[in-house]
Amino acid sequence: MIISVASGKGGTGKTTVATNLALSVKSQVQLLDCDVEEPNAHLFIHPVFEKSEAITTPVPQVDENKCTVCGNCAEICEFKAIVVMGEVLVEVMPEWKEKFLELYDRIQEQVSNRQEHPS
Ligand code: SF4
Question: Which residue has a Cα nearest atom 8 of ligand 1?
């Protein structure tokens, strides 16, 4: 028998339900934690891992020295994770939040400079 515990939203108790189901079964059971962002069922059941393998996701980085802010990447990004704000390219993926904030500060500085020195 295969039982899947799924939800489109985080924090709904999927791991709690799945681990308690697994622990309540008296016969041999396999628990597969397929959470791609935060697999943490192991915190509840403390398994002995026989093997581990690092899984990574390539994340593109914009070379700001070469970027012409043409906006092509923003147009083709199917996740809409890149936006062009004026003359600044902004990656809005959560893991790039720090860079976004840095760029935001730069934008604010540019706006301030233009207000002080209008052309
Ligand atoms: S806006 Fe995007 S596609 Fe255009 S040069 Fe910059 S990184 Fe490349």
Answer: 67
